[in-house]
Amino acid sequence: MENHVLIRIDGLVKRFPMGQGEFTALRDISLTIGRGEFTGLVGPSGSGKTTLLNIVGSLDVPTEGAVVVDGRSVGRLSTREAAQLRKERLGFIFQSYNLLAVHTVYENVEFPLLLLKIPAEERRRMVMDALEWVGLVPKVKSKPPQLSGGECQRVAIARAMVKKPSLVLADEPTANLDAANSHHILQTMEKLNRELGTTFLFATHDDKVISYLRRKIYLLDGRVDKDEIIVVSKTESL
Amino acid sequence: MPILVVTLGVMLTVFLHAYVVGFMGDTIEMNARFNNGHVKLMTRAYAANMDQSPNDLALLGVDSLMAHLNREYPGIAWSPRIRFGGLVDAPDENGETKAQGTALGMGIDLLTPGTPEPLRLNLEKSLVRGHMPQQNGEVLLSETFSQKLKVSPGDQVTLIGSTMEGGMAMVNFIVAGTLSFGVEIMDRGTILADLTDVQSALQMPDGASEINGYFHSGFYDDEQATSLAATFNDALKENPDEFAPLLMPLRQQGGMGTYVTMIDTWSGYISLVFILAMSLVLWNAGLLGGLRRYGEVGVRLAMGEEKTHVYGTMIVESVFIGLVGSVIGTALGLAFSWILQEYGINISGMMKGASVMFPDKIRARITPQDFYLGFIPGLFSTVLGTLLSGVGIFKRQTARLFKELEA
After folding, report:
1. Apex B245 CA angle, B72 and B56, nearest 5
2. A60 CB near a chain B CB, below 8 Å?
């Protein structure tokens, strides 16, 4: 059972210093997220979505409580160990793509593998696989300024997925895209989730994203307001 | 792109340094060519009164001295000269005096085939009328002086002066051409004749006021000249003869020492200001390069790259960019400087008939500093800029990355 749990959050509290006092961003959050889930943290601005995503992504630490991601307790990791966790197990997709403009599509996708010191031949195979997943093999030599917004976000997805991480964290991934591109991106991510079994955790308040989620964790004022699991029939999921 | 920026900056630094050194040094070279030489050989007695050009104290046995100098110092071109003063008389068609004027004269080698003196003094290009002397008995006059004497090329003039022994000298010459010197005192009354004619006229066979030495590089090297003179004079220090030869570097002649120091200082200041300016530009480029990569750094940190690794790779990159840019920039700067040193920019069109005293070409001068000073802005400043901008990496809070990367 524990093996199926990718993220376990127990009594999480996050407070930030503010002026003379403190601001509580997350209050007593307890959750488990299983492997292969396609889950979203849903809520208005200031509800704590990004703060929770930061802590799960080992970019920040809890003030109280425990957050265990893929068997590692985030609050107890050193800076180096946290970086190691992100490098090996996590993928990130940002609202603004954040591709390296002077590098080609291939080089952007290859970058996480360079950090992992994967041999060149294997690296090449993995990059080409990732580009095939997102349908960008023909653009392999293009540079980000030559791509559309949708294509850029697909490169970002390939970059996040290329090392086959346990978990992909996506913060408002469609915020800069039109409806058609948003659906295309979400379908791509859904397909990767289904075919590769990668867990996706979104932070969003975009209805388009919400409509694709199979689990919606509603946050309000730093608390879990509602945790809704959408039952998908086998036919639908196919 | 960053390599291109560094290359351009370094190239400009090297080129402009060589240009400034060359340009500032031109004034020294003009003095050296016309008057002082890079080093000057005289008798001790002549050197003590050199302002008066006392030919009774001149060097004798110049042929054997020249042979000795050419043998012992092959890196220097030696040219004997005689300086003299006198009265130039211009007769009318009846042989009566038409006009007279006092003259400052110089006897130089004008007639030996391949003599470097006319080129050294830029005589041919400074001719206003007539032609260069082609045989003994022909002289050049300053244009103003020729007008004062009412003579033209082909006319006869008589030089009245004193011989080396103090007797009266009176010799006829034919005016071959006239020159513009561009300096009032010289234009007022200068006569140039071949050395052998002057030796004959002033009865100083095998004699010369001085023997000027010029480095083959074409540039005055103060350290080399001073050291050469010290060695030469040391070898003769036990000789009590006041007519023993004395070698004097340009720096020790008249006020040239102050001038050489001033030129060195000013070219140093100008170069320093330019290097500092270029250092600021490239330091800024390094700084901006680091700041421009703010987003990239954020992504790399989010993806799990350690801060020290990000900082390290940025520094390694800037060292690489600085080194490659500095090497290419220095090579290009030296190449352009070499072209300007060898061929110069011909400004004779702007200075038509200007003067002997002004060079008709602007030249750069490559010095040993040009081989390394480009690395100050190219490598040091670029890396410093990156080092400073990169410190920001350690101040980044990973907890803020999602927010920062949303922009």
Report:
1. 140
2. yes
Task: Tell whether B405 lies on the interface with A, counting CB pairs under 8 A.
Answer: yes
What is the distance between the alpha carbons of residues A21 and A46, in angstroms, rounded to a whole number? 18
Chain B nearest C-alpha distance from A4 (Å): 24
Distance in angstroms between the alpha carbons of the first and the last residue of chain B: 25
Helices and strands counted in chain B (H then E): 14, 14
Q: Is residue A65 included in any domain, yes or no? A: yes
Tokens of B133: 């002397």
Is any Cβ of chain B less than 8 angstroms from the Cβ of A115? yes
| Contact in structure between B85 and B51 (CB atoms under 8 Å) | no
The answer to whether the CB atoms of A59 and B302 lie below 8 A apart is yes
407 residues of chain B, pLDDT tens digit each: 778 888 888 888 888 888 887 877 777 887 888 888 899 999 998 888 887 888 888 888 889 989 998 898 888 999 999 999 889 999 888 888 888 899 989 999 999 998 998 988 888 888 889 999 999 999 999 998 999 999 999 999 999 988 888 888 889 999 999 988 766 777 788 999 999 999 999 998 888 999 999 998 878 888 889 998 999 888 888 888 888 889 999 888 877 788 788 877 887 887 788 888 877 877 777 777 767 777 777 888 888 888 888 888 888 988 888 889 899 999 999 999 888 887 777 665 655 444 445 555 677 888 888 898 888 887 888 788 778 777 777 777 666 666 666 65
3-state secondary structure of B129: strand
Q: What distance in Å separates the CA atoms of residue A186 and residue B364, rounded to the nearest whole number?
A: 65
pTM of the full structure: 0.62
A237 within some domain = no
- Which chain A residue's Cα is nearest to B299? A98
> Considering the domain boundaries, does residue A238 fall inside one?
no
Whether A80 and chain B come into contact, CB under 8 Å, resolves to yes
Secondary structure in 3-state letters for B208-269? ECEEEEEECCCCCCHHHHHHHHHHHHHHCCCCCCCCCEEEEEHHHCCCHHHHHHHHHHHHHH
Chain B residue nearest residue A54, CA to CA: B399
**CATH code for the domain of A138:** 3.40.50.300
- Phi/psi of residue B49, each to 5°? -125, 30
Q: For residue A98, list chain B residues with Cβ-Cβ distance below 8 A.
A: 295-296, 298-299, 405
State the DSSP string of B273-288.
HHHHHHHHHHHHHHHH
Query: What is the nearest CA distance from B297 to chain A, expressed in angstroms?
Result: 10
Q: How many Cα neighbours within 13 Å face the side chain of B385?
A: 29
Total domains, chain A: 1
ipTM confidence score:
0.79
Report CA Rg, chain A. 18
- Cα-Cα-Cα-Cα torsion B272, B275, B281, B286, nearest 10 degrees, comes to -120
**Structural domain of A41:** 2-232
Residue of chain A nearest B306, judged by CA positions: A83
